[in-house]
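Running this now, will post back.
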Amino acid sequence: MTTLLCRLVGPRWLGVILPDTHARTPYLTPRDRTRQLAGGGRSLTGYSRALSRKQHTEAEAAVEVDLKRLDGEDNGIAEVLMCRHVARNSLGHVFVSQMRELVSTLSNDSAVRVVVFRSLVPGVFCAGADLKERALMNNSESDLFVHNLRSLMTQIALLPMPTIAAVDGAALGGGLELALACDLRSAAYSAQMGLIETTRGLLPGAGGSQRLPRMVGMTLAKELIFTGRRVGGQTALEMGLVNRAVEQNQTGDAAYREALSLAREILPQAPIAVRMAKEAMNRGFEVDISSAMAIERMCYARVIPTRDRQEGMAAFIEKRPPRYTGE
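Update: finished.
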């Protein structure tokens, strides 16, 4: 069935939840999980030998990105945990490699209905590029790494289920680009966000120069990128950069709590309908209105034969809450 769908409509349409694709990530020991997410002993190309040895050692030593699946009433919510404490979640090779593996796993998991990206490092969401690693790269290596980073952000943006970034601290440069790749964002008032690349002699290279204008408008995006300005959570809310902003709490996870609340609002809805709504909006936004209507029609056609649609109609008639199964 999956092969047939791929031939008919291409891989971007495989966000549909199929009854026989309830993949689960197998249990792994911390050491095995580290090797799997980091790419194990696979050779690293495009980098110096010294850098490769350093990255291999780091991959064996620590998990920098982890996955947590909530249970009970929150079953269906998955959390991507960024936990590179030694470097403020900066986007080093190991961090990016682990994130790519994890996001790839999520993209094929029909049991996950909402994904929350959050940091376990106090005071920071993601500090952006790992400048110490970048300093060891030559021009071609640097270009390749940024290309891979841009590819990661696209991979996050193409996840079939809704994604929420919980910005409880600094989200700078590539860190904000990661948040921009998510569908929704919550932030603490005390958070600091900015595409600061021009202050380092660069420009946003992982999608920020394209996603920010689409989010806040071209004129404002140009001002923010040209100046490298940082904004707090309240200002970010006013300009449409985040969906929700809240006062920080004593435990430093107010934005995460708000993101979890938002995820819980999405969770009870029909998962196939939510995924197809995301597909329709994302693809339709990039084309003319006539083409967008055709995309909407194709997405709508995907939900008509589902059991969830039948359940939704039955629940309405019987005046009871629907029980969606993603089928």
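The longest helix spans residues 139-157. More later if anyone needs it.
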